[in-house]
Structure formats: C-alpha cells, structure tokens
Amino acid sequence: QVQLAESGGGLVQTGDSLRLSCTASGRTSGGGNMAWFRQAPGKERDFVASITRNGDTAYYADSVKGRFTISRDNAKNTVFLQLNSLKPEDTAVYYCAMAGTIYYNSQFASQESSYYYWGQGTQVTVSS
Fold this sequence. Notes:
Helices cover 3% and strands 48% of the residues. It contains 1 helix and 11 strands. The strands form 2 sheets. Strands 2, 4, 5, 6, 9, 10 and 11 form a 7-stranded mixed sheet that branches. A 4-stranded antiparallel sheet has the order 1-3-8-7, with no helix packed on it. By secondary structure, the protein is mainly beta.
C-alpha cells in the first residue's frame, strides 16, 4: 500500500507562483509515473502533468504548458509541481497520483484510470 500526502497549496493572486509537493510513503519501490490532477468546483477532475519514474519524460495538459513544471526527487519519494503565472482558472483542488506502471505514452499518462494511488488533495485558490 502507498500513501500520498500533498502540501503547498494556498491563496495567491494572479501572476503569483506556488510549489506543490507530494510525498509518498509505504511500498513505493514498484511505483511508476507520478502525476498531478486538479478538480475545480462543479467540474470533473482533469489531468495536469505526469512524470516518468526516472524523471526523463514529462507530459502536460495544454492549459498549463509553459507555466507549470513537474519534477521528482526519488531519494525523498517526492514529486513537485511548480506553478508559475497563476490564473484564476487554475483555482482547484490539486491531487497527486501514483501509477504502478511507467508510461512513455501521453494518452496513458494523462488518464485517471492509469493511477492506483491518490492523495487527499491540496487547495489552490487564485484571486483576480
């Protein structure tokens, strides 16, 4: 079993930056891609970014390309999401997820069903 714990959310203004962290504990040795998804009020959960186990490949939703950066530190079992140039439409609960497989395919890497473990989420609110 794997537990994921996100942190780093908060209330910021348009144009500000945040750095989200997600630390995994438990049986993490067999983990594959790690990803971030987000869910805005009244909307479905959407893919944000995913990164392969060794960090050599990352995938991003079009809406965040050039503004968000995903990275990971396997020694610390932690994945990060750097959020720059934040917009009000980025307001959402951000969830961390871990897959049991390494995906070098953007379609699989961006699907919720590819991920077995999920965190509880951290709120990001961007005011205009």
